[in-house]
Amino acid sequence: MQQPPVGTAAEAEPAVLRFPDPAPSSTDEGFQNLEDDKGEASFSDLPPEPPPIEPFTGADLVQGATWMLILGLRLQTQEEVEAFTRAFQGGVLPMLPPAPVLDALKVGEALAAYGIGKNRLPLQGGVEHLPPWLRILLGAGVMAMSVYGGMRAVQEIRARSAPNPPAGGSADEPAQA
Predict the structure, then answer these.
(1) Per residue in 142-153, pLDDT tens?
(2) Does 148 fall in a domain?
(3) Could you tell me which residues belong to the region Disordered (predicted)?
(4) How far, in Å, CA of 146 to CA of 35, rounded?
């Protein structure tokens, strides 16, 4: 491409910027009023903000876990329930009872950060709204409970079908007079 010689008309004329036609005014046909017949929507039409989530305490979490485990373990007597509750809530080591440990780890606050608390339980808003990690954990918990139930059923069948030992001792030993 050739450049024009110096001192020609191309150098003398400044570049002209062309702007598009101005936008239509509010009186043109293309203008749409965004307000409906009633006027602007007021803030009173908005749904109320949900109350803040009240986090669980460590004691709340341990108590809830205790009852879920008691139901799952099918404890048969009041003595078994009391022994399990005492051992579970006391912890394996006396210096590590679960409730204070959960409080120190701020597990209740961590659950509240995901929308789970005393005033808002996981299934109140629909399971699909739970965080993915919690849905996986709940699914694994349901599977674990199912495995446990299946194993208990097998143990019950084995216990029923096992031969009863003789009342006087072993069948190999002769009775002594």
Answers:
(1) 788 788 778 888
(2) yes
(3) 1-53
(4) 57
pLDDT tens for each residue of 56-95: 999 999 998 888 888 888 888 999 999 988 888 888 777 8
Number of domains comprising the chain: 2
Higher pLDDT, residue 96 or 29: 96
The overall longest dimension of the chain from CA atoms, in Å, is: 141
Let me know whether 58 and 108 are in one domain. Answer: yes
- Do 65 and 101 lie in one domain? The reply is yes
Q: Do residues 144 and 108 both lie within one domain?
A: no
Q: Report the predicted TM-score, pTM, of the whole model to 2 decimal places.
A: 0.51
pLDDT in tens, 8-44: 555 556 666 666 666 555 555 665 655 555 555 566 7
Cβ 102 vs Cβ 58: under 8 Å = yes
Domain of residue 151 covers 121-159
Report phi then psi at 37, rounded to 5.
Answer: -60, -30
Q: Is residue 144 part of a domain?
A: yes
Spatial separation of the C-alpha atoms in residues 137 and 107, rounded to whole Å: 15
Please report, as a single letter, which amino acid is at residue 64.
G
Q: Are 88 and 63 in contact, with CB atoms under 8 Å apart?
A: no
- Token representation of residue 101: 């440990």
